[in-house]
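Let's practice the habit of predicting before peeking. Look at the sequence and jot down your guess about where helices and strands might fall. Then scroll down.
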Amino acid sequence: MIDGKNTSSLTDSKGFFQVKVKSDAERIGILTFGSGLIEESISGRTEINLKFGVSATQQKTDQEIEPGDEGVNTGYNYVKQKNVTTQVSKIDGTNKKYASYSTVYEMIQREVSGVRISGTDIIINESKDFFGNVPALLVVDGTYVKDFTSISPNSVESIEVLKGTAAAMYGSRGYGGAVVIRTRLKN
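Done guessing? Here is the structure:
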């Protein structure tokens, strides 16, 4: 981005990019999946190396993120909700309004748009391949599971529904998206 306007420029496989800018341009920025928007002043420079990444000091857990600036589990790390660049829906299981739900499936279907429940499969945005529907990958406290039937809605701390490219970190397993649950009972 140059001065807040999209240039549609992409990096090559090694992270190099080239973009032409007008002489009066002031800021250059890049949009990343994990770090959101990173900007730097141009200040007459002809070569700019933008560095980004998540260091141990930048990673935050849900408990360290201030109220009103909650984090979303993108699979790689926690990102502030306002900096998420992919489709992620979050349910705060600690909210008392979810206490009336009898299953986690009911909770997800009623609270997240674009989700359909088929038995114990969760279908996100009608994802399909040549053989039919592709169910979402189900993850509980970092472990892959076959279903959520044994999880009580009262034990859920948070649910993140990763749609489309948001589930890319799971590789081909995440083709149909992913549903990531953190329980209050985790060790």
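How did you do? The CA atoms of residues 16 and 183 lie 41 Å apart.
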